[in-house]
Specification:
By secondary structure, the protein is of the alpha+beta class. It is built from 15 helices and 22 strands. The protein has an eight-stranded antiparallel β-barrel. The chain has a seven-stranded antiparallel beta sheet with strand order 1-4-3-13-12-11-10, sandwiched between helices. β15 and β16 form a beta hairpin.
């Protein structure tokens, strides 16, 4: 069956930025790309995806999008490309449901999981711009002043819980993710969800570490923020329509357990449990999608062009162009690191430096994966929405191809070399590790005939050694740095031929978070089962 494809070219030919810009806000006029059109560029991408990382000596062969959809067991994908600070093109590839012939189009609605969070952050900053909210005021004071009865349980931890800390995941609030509800299950309202009372399927959202003491990803924190915004602005979805969606003409977007009406809807798909890529198949999840009443954490439905409108608005606001949703100073605050360790701004993770600086956020609910990347200074970016659990790897290949095609200042495909590592060093890495910032997340390192395999929440992937303490993979875009046994322990062994396993791994992904994992004493834990909650939303 031919691969359905539907496109919508929305802008005239844009200009491509080449070279290095000075460290200032002004952008020199980029050269015109001769003899090209958005249609040709979209067609070029569909035939030439790239592995984000390949080994030195490996052939650099183009990867047809049709084949990569099948390889990753993803039925369909929608892509929107930003170039020169404008939407260049948007296209849909594949199908809405595995086995059907209904095509994905640019107007297809996808569940986008945690991409809800940067949109919620934008709404919060709108309240700051209108002097209805202060980023550094204790939220209990805001709620009391608004006449709201809710009070966040503190668990005995001292320190202020402020909007800034909620937005940057440093407020110490728990509940990193939410798993959603099946069709027919009763859905909790906001108060029930915050309080963990029936029919909520998670415990009460509460402070679980000292506010300001460190970074820990928290979907629960965004639901607390939602309670603050409801107290100030009324129903969250109505405020979002009024303040964000309608002004930016994001008319296919909405928060809710069900997708917005008026357009095609991509159904979510899991992947059959097989490590053989040829045997993997997409399986539609029950009822098509999980229901997420936790709007600020995970409740957004959207399209690739709609999310691009928000992305472009943020880029223009940062450049000081008039008429944007946020004033320039608040956008710059949003896109400044609030944490030393992880580089998070307000609602977005920040990567790169200088001209190469960009913001990124991933979304994941059962059966869907989404990714937004936007360069702060150069006006490049993309939105990738998929209807399959294998969509993370597919999105990385799409981003690598776009970075090469449009000469992005970062995220170009990498070529890496490997070194030989002795068996004792490899053996010392074997074990089960649990996330220190996200305890629901685990990974297991296993020994194989080829070296090492890491089993993560995205499946199994082979590890390659860049050194005896640094490893990477090709499929998931991961880098693992090894911190050996406690360096404060004078008797602690290291990796140089001794048998004690390391106690800490630092995992970095190309488009996601930096996370730290500690060695568990119980090596029989199941990384897939233990990570089920995390897989709900990221």
């Amino acid at each position: 069956m031919p691969l359905p494809r539907s496109s919508r070219i929305l802008t005239p030919p844009a200009l491509l930025l080449l070279g290095i810009l000075a460290a200032c806000d002004s952008t020199p006029p980029p050269p015109v790309i001769p003899n090209t059109t958005p249609e040709l560029e979209a067609a070029e991408l569909s035939g030439a995806l790239r592995l984000p990382v390949r080994l030195a000596g490996m052939p650099d062969e183009p990867l047809p999008l049709r084949e990569r959809l099948r390889h990753h067991a993803v039925p369909g994908v929608a892509i929107a490309v930003v170039d020169g600070g404008e939407l260049r093109w948007a296209e849909g590839y594949g199908v809405l449901t595995a086995g059907s012939e209904d095509p994905v189009t640019p107007d297809t609605r996808f569940q986008v999981g945690s991409l809800s969070k940067p949109l919620a952050a934008t709404l919060a900053l709108r309240a700051v711009a209108a002097d209805r909210l202060d980023l550094d005021v204790e939220i209990d004071a805001v709620l009391r002043a608004a006449g709201a009865a809710y009070e966040l349980p503190r668990g005995g931890f001292a320190g202020a819980v402020t909007p800034r800390r909620l937005l940057s995941h440093t407020a110490g609030v728990g509940q990193p993710s939410v798993s959603g509800y099946s069709a027919g299950e009763p859905l909790p309202n906001l108060e029930q969800s915050l309080g963990g009372s029936a029919p909520a399927n998670h415990p009460a959202i509460a402070v679980e570490r000292a506010p300001g003491s460190g970074w820990a990803y928290s979907g629960g924190g965004y639901e607390v923020l939602r309670r603050v915004l409801v107290a100030l602005d009324g129903p969250f979805d109505a405020a979002m329509r009024r303040e964000i969606f309608e002004p930016l003409e994001m008319l296919a977007s909405g928060f809710g357990a069900e997708p917005p009406a008026g357009g095609p809807v991509a159904r979510g798909h899991g992947v059959t449990s097989s490590e053989d890529s040829e045997a993997r198949r997409a399986i539609q999840i029950d009822d098509g999608w999980r229901r997420h009443p936790e709007y600020a954490a995970a409740g957004l439905w959207s399209t690739a062009p709609d999310l691009t409108a928000w992305l472009v608005d943020l880029q223009k606001s940062h450049a000081g162009k008039p008429g944007r949703r946020l004033p320039r100073d608040l956008t710059r605050t949003m896109l400044e690191p609030q944490t030393d360790a992880n580089g998070w701004g307000l609602g977005l993770e920040l990567r790169g430096r200088g001209h190469s600086r960009y913001f990124v956020h991933r979304g994941a609910t059962a059966g869907y994966r989404a990714l937004v990347v936007g360069f702060i200074h150069s006006g490049h970016g993309a939105v990738v929405l998929t209807n399959g659990d294998g969509g993370d790897a597919l999105a990385r290949e799409i981003i690598a191809a776009l970075a090469e095609q449009y000469a992005w200042p970062a995220l170009q495909p990498q070529v890496r070399s490997t070194v030989d590592v002795d068996d004792a060093t490899l053996d010392a890495l074997v074990g089960s590790y649990r996330g220190l910032e996200l305890p629901s997340l685990t990974l297991t390192v296993e020994r194989t005939d080829d070296g090492l395999t890491a089993r993560t929440w995205s499946g199994a992937t082979r590890l390659y050694a860049a050194s005896s303490t640094s490893f990477f993979d090709l499929e998931q875009g991961l880098s693992l740095d090894i911190d050996t046994a406690d360096r404060d322990d004078p008797d602690g062994d290291d990796l140089d031929g001794n048998s004690q396993a390391p106690v800490r791994l630092t995992l970095r992904s190309l488009h996601g978070m930096t996370l730290t994992f500690g060695l568990e004493t119980d090596t029989d834990s199941d990384p897939i089962a233990d990570s089920a909650t995390h897989r709900g939303t990221s």
